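tool_call predict_complex ligand=guanine
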Amino acid sequence: MPATKLDGKALAATIRGEVAAAVAARAATGKRPPGLAAVIVGDNPASHVYVRNKHKACGDVGFASWVHTLPGDTTQAGLLEVVEKLNRDPAVHGILVQLPLPKQIDEDAVLRSVSPSKDVDCFHPENVGLLAAGHPRFYPCTPHGVVQLLHRNGIVTAGKEVVVVGRSNIVGKPQALMLMQKPTKANPAGGDATVTVAHTRTRDLAAVCRRAEILVVAAGALHAITPDMIAPGATVIDVGMHSVNGKLTGDVHPGAADVAGALTPVPGGVGPMTIAMLLVNTLAAAEQIDGV
Ligand code: GUN
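tool_result ok
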């Protein structure tokens, strides 16, 4: 039997509807709309597509949103000045600096320059620390999207063997933290799972992956996970995104659908959830800054 499709596109639409309802309720009490400012440096085509999609999603739920497009030769001081202005702007509740940045710019310094209270990507070390300590201010968008895909599809994570493939700061590392943590009132997206993190230096990756009841793949490598690496019936979440002959595909080989119990499609799985969770974070930032 082919794997059940975990439809991120449909769930993201539901979550966007929840955000839009909250924005309308805020407006009814005279509050200004949540505002998201995106900053993009240079002309990386994929980054421009991502930012355009985020900007459109903001408009659809009633947010204010701005895109600051800076030339590829922008200096670090020039970029820091733009971020500083956004930090001070009361109409801006969330700031997103699209990565990657050109080589002349110190990415770490820029991420640290974003006010932690407006850091809706959850990349600032203060917010990473709060997440690690189990008192998150925000959850990072892609890992939170994965947790929502699991929980809202009734896939229990508590006590499960989870393998996360990839150890990036954006996905693998925070994903492992979230899935291992205890869910509490302050940290409702905890997963209570037994988590293994695999990466490029892992010995016998196939054997490690076959241990997983839930396999989250953020390897950044086309079709790195083949059907023989998946335990029959496992839930497989594919965070990868690659364009092959103009078609999008993931880190998981399409043959996985014949082995897995449930699988996210690419496109239409994790991707739309990332944007939905960015909206959730921007709404949360507005509520933290302006009050609910
Ligand atoms: N580049 C790739 N993914 C992301 C993301 O989630 N946020 C930002 N700011 N840049 C990215």
